[in-house]
Amino acid sequence: MSAHVATRLAWGLFAAFVALALGTVASVAFAGGSSDTAFILLAIGYPAVGTLIASRHRASPIGWILLAIALSFAFSGFGDAYAASTSHPGVELVGWLASLSWYVWLTLAAIFLPLLFPDGRLLSRRWRPVAWLGAVALGSSILAAALKPGALDLDSAEAIDNPLGVGGAAAEVVAVLQDLSNVLLALGFLLAAASLVIRFRRSRGVERLQLKWFAYAGLLALAGLTLAPVSVLLGGAQSGEAGGALVDVLGPIGWFTALFAIVLGIPAATGVAILRHRLYDIDLVINRTLVYGALTVTLLAAYLGSVLLLQLALSPLTQESDLAVAGSTLAVAALFRPARRRIQTVVDLRFFRKRYDAARTLERFAARLRDEVDLDSLNGELRAVVADTMQPAHVSLWLRAPAGGQR
């Protein structure tokens, strides 16, 4: 495929995504239906990044995978919104196709994207069965969903029966096929994640930075999905006002983090990694995430703990909790800066040891610099510090001659 054809095709697929997204919004606005489908516009990062990658690196499948994810996801949302009114022409066909497209973007995003990232090739020939496993899982999932009897999985006002649903003994076979496809999808996801881990352990240089960006977005999504069910699992537990408030807060934070990482984070990280724009900033991004994530958890735990303790201590004097809340807020505000410095030190020491050692070396050199008067000694110490902290291939020090002509 020539560069011109690839560019035109990529931008054509981007335009198709925009048309489906606008059609989804129009269906929600004028025909009713769930407004949740309108968040499809947030997924514009997938076609945008996919178009840029496909235009510049047309031989790489990564850009085309992103575009396929975007289109299947957009059509799934469009079909859900279109089926909100059963009076629309062809609603059964659109709803049927939308129920199948869900498996397309899920399989591409969970199996094939991590399996081929970042160079578009498998880790080795031994991983070809995993790619075939993903293809079989996708095909069996689509076939089972296409023939499953009963109502389609759509958010419609009235249930829409599957026009190709089978019954009798065939329905039992379809149920077994669906269970098997779910197992294959889960196995394919685990193997693709294992491939990414092995690739990261073997990587060096630019490839390692690319994988860091992708892994950062994926782990952020995984952390959000792990935290999200808290409000559902513990929502009915009687744990006091502070505990109940914590449960109510953690669930939305988890869902928001997962949604942000999946819809925006993964395409953004993929674009940075493949296009190599600000590629070397990943260590700083990870550092800040660890520091402020740990700081948020620490301050939240300190706030809730102090509220509970102050409520117990002040309960004989007053039944109001305003004083406990005010005292806890002041305590957390005072704790912010020392806690951040301490967490920053721990993170640098544990995960960024080279940076930590370099900072300590520079601090010691700055302390000795105030008392050093011999130029030759200063020259030697400066070279040693630069060699230890920056590790260059060669170090040279040039001194400008003073106005009198003597150094």
Task: Sum this structure up briefly.
With 407 residues, this protein is mainly α. The chain contains 13 helices and no strands.
Task: Summarize the structure in words.
This protein is mainly alpha-helical. It has helices spanning 3-31, 45-56, 61-82, 91-116, 128-147, 169-202, 205-227, 230-233, 240-275, 282-314, 322-351, 353-369, 375-390. Residues 236-243 have low confidence and may be disordered.
Features:
single chain; 407 residues; mainly alpha; 74% helix
**What's the overall average pLDDT, rounded?**
76
Query: Roughly how many Å apart are the termini?
Result: 64 Å
User: Biggest sheet, in brief?
Assistant: none
> How many domain regions?
4
Q: Percent of residues in beta strands?
A: under 5%
Low-confidence stretches: 236-243
Give the structural class: mainly alpha
Rough shape? globular
Rg from alpha-carbon coordinates: 28 Å
The total count of strands amounts to: 0
Tally of contiguous helical segments: 13
Considering DSSP H and I runs of 4 or more, what fraction of the residues is helical? over 70%
Order of secondary-structure elements: HHHHHHHHHHHHH
